[in-house]
Amino acid sequence: MASTACRNGIVQKGNSKSSSFKSRPHPSPSLGSAIRRSSSASYAGNDGVPGRVRVAVRLRPRNAEETVADADFADCVELQTELKRLKLRKNNWDSDTYEFDEVFTESASQKRVYEVVAKPVVESVLDGYNGTVMAYGQTGTGKTFTLGRLGDEDTSSRGIMVRSMEDILADVSLESDSVSVSYLQLYMETIQDLLDPANDNISIVEDPKTGDVSLPGATLVQIRDQQSFTELLRWGEAHRVAANTKLNTESSRSHAILMIHVKRSVVGREEDLSSEINHASHLIKPSKPLVRKSKLVVVDLAGSERIHKSGSEGHMLEEAKSINLSLSALGKCINALAENSAHVPLRDSKLTRLLRDSFGGTARTSLIVTIGPSPRHRGETASTILFGQRAMKVENMLKIKEEFDYKSLSRRLEIQLDKLIVENERQQKAFDDEVERIHLEAQNRISEVERNFADALEKEKLKCQMEYMESVKKLEERCC
Ligand SMILES: Nc1ncnc2c1ncn2[C@@H]1O[C@H](COP(=O)(O)OP(=O)(O)OP(=O)(O)O)[C@@H](O)[C@H]1O
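^ thats the input. predicted complex w/ adenosine-5'-triphosphate below
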């Protein structure tokens, strides 16, 4: 029986008796635990929500070459899906056991992988948090298969990128929200725009105050429907493949980074705004307009094989070194974060500068580590597993980024002002009409009074004339 060792405090090796397995606490039931809240509930200020990096492992089925070459050998791994454990065989009688947030066998569907690994991240992006989904593993183990499959011929094979956008577009309102995308590759420490390949030296800008990372030089395409997004991915992927073909390699030598920016309008509470608009008008009390900006970063890392194994020389060696440099810088950062070290060497490579928010930052992060079954690649598989194990120890502090939307407030105040002007004009017209009506009525009354007076005068005049005539007549009679 093999001796017992402990890795990262959660792994036992030997004959893998369950009784000796130290289980890691599961703070939540699924990978990328749900923090999805209603929009109103998520208006909670800027308090961070703690969230550990979630890690799943996915085993690729044997390929044609392995089916022949490894015919007489057992796979180097065995998965215990119920227990979310993976056993890595050292030899016929000895194995190491590792526990993950989820383990996917070779028959796991793309839909299930998406729902467990990426959907919770997409949901928190829709709630205003940043999110990262990343695939790490040796060349040919299924990173691109998991993330980048378009599913043209078989829709069930759609990968995480396509499914994420489907869920995002189904949730946002294109009238008030916006979704835009950039697609990049990081190759030999230079960032190239996969949507505009001539643009091949994009710089990373870090906000010293917030630590936010942005790539202002990258093409940003507004997405309004799923089809245009799929076309964009196809276009970007073609450039990535072309670059690899030029280098005479079928495997991806670059890290591909898809960034989906989501900008949503949210309405805050009315009283919060009162002080800001008091001067505007006591009549206008619009609710507080806010924009919530978040981004989903999907990272398809280059193959993680070691230099000696890739047998590289010349340019290929330099390239392998560069891939190694960025992946080992990422590994070092993860180690430092896992050990709560005071110094995290984020600046050691462009990859770690780009992903500074994804590990130990304010984003919700899911990592999928892909492995192959071949015992010939046991060493690579072991190092991939250890990478995943360490990443599981990294704690992020998720934060919502809300900004006061001055543009939207000004738009809304303009609309309200227009309404007030129209109302004022309506009231002025009603007033003028009323004055006109009263004036007419008064004139009619005066005319009527004048008429009545003239009638009465005429009557009085006639009466006087009659009386006069009567008096004259009486006088004449007396005189005669
Ligand atoms: N889960 C899976 N089920 C069936 N086929 C798979 C699976 N994962 C990978 N494959 C197949 O294995 C091959 C290699 O996969 P893929 O290109 O995704 O690997 P990769 O890790 O992205 O490699 P690289 O690092 O070289 O880009 C492809 O032909 C892919 O279709």
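Residues 406-479 form the longest helix (74 residues).
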